[in-house]
Amino acid sequence: MRVAEMNWMQIEAQAKRDDRCVLPLGSVEQHAYLSLATDVILSERVAQEAAEPLGIPVFPVLAYGLTPGFLNFPGSISLKMSTYAALLGDIFDGFYRSGFRRIVLVNGHGGNSPALNFATEWLDRHPDASIRLHNWWAAPQFQAAVKAVDPAASHASWMENFPWTRLAGVAMPDTLKPPFNAAEYQAASPAKRREILGDGNFHGLYRRPDAEMLKLWQVGVEETRAAMVENWP
């Protein structure tokens, strides 16, 4: 259930019935020919579809994240690490005050991974709570399904090209993007990284048939749903 469709009284009653809630984490950053909000769109959608049959409330996506490597691509917005930690802390505090004790972070962007370190610090002050960070696109079942289709898959490639992340009227290359020198990229400034990446696709084809993508999506939804249910401490 979407928190946008609930009022405070419903949230109060829900937290008494079930102390789980979900926060999608995204990023506004370059995705080659796809939407700048690809990570926002995917994390929120997979979280909502996964949580719906469980009746777990999904809060609005935290759209901005940590993406300093893409700063030289116009439209890419990156928070400072201190800003991100402070923002997460305020949000976690709000969840806690509302009665939620089990928090699922459905993350759509690899750069947001430091959120788990901050969450662990926060949990030290709230030992009766627990927080799970689920990197939905990097989870084992989804990655296995991706590799079974095409192992040449990465940021802004076909792997993130769903009907809801592509842009109307934007044509994409019908070619395979070759891999770049990863060691050189990791050591480079944002300006140099843009030069290395070119259009922003890391590696692979730009698009695959929607029938394949929808099957992959269902794997991601089901694996995300399992993360909301299984193995809570």
In whole angstroms, how far apart are the ends?
24 Å
CATH fold-type name: Rossmann fold
> What is the average of the pLDDT values?
97
Q: What is Rg?
A: 18 Å
CATH H level, superfamily name: Creatininase
CATH architecture: 3-Layer(aba) Sandwich
CATH class: Alpha Beta
Measured by DSSP, the beta-strand proportion falls in 5-15%
Q: Level of helix content?
A: 40-55%
Number of domains: 1
Biggest β-sheet: strands ordered side by side in the sheet: 1-2-3
- Counting DSSP E segments of at least 2 residues, the number of strands comes to 5
Largest sheet: 3 strands, parallel
Question: Strand pairing plus helix content: what structural class?
Answer: mainly alpha
What string gives the helices and strands in order?
HEHHEHEHEHHEH
Q: Give the overall shape, derived from the CA principal axes.
A: globular
Q: What's the tally of helices?
A: 8
The poorly predicted ranges are none
Name the features.
mainly alpha; 3-stranded parallel β-sheet; 8 helices; Rossmann fold; 233 residues; two-stranded antiparallel sheet; single chain
Describe the protein in words:
- A 3-stranded parallel β-sheet has the order 1-2-3, sandwiched between helices. A two-stranded antiparallel ribbon has the order 4-5.
- The chain has 233 residues and is mainly α.
- The longest helix has 20 residues, at 210-229.
- α3 crosses α4 (114-125) and α5 runs antiparallel to α8 (210-229).
- The model has no long low-confidence stretch (mean pLDDT 97).
- 38% of the residues are buried.
- 41% of the residues lie in helices and 9% in strands.
- The chain has a single domain, classed as Creatininase (Rossmann fold), CATH 3.40.50.
- The chain has 8 helices and 5 strands; from the N terminus they run αβααβαβαβααβα.
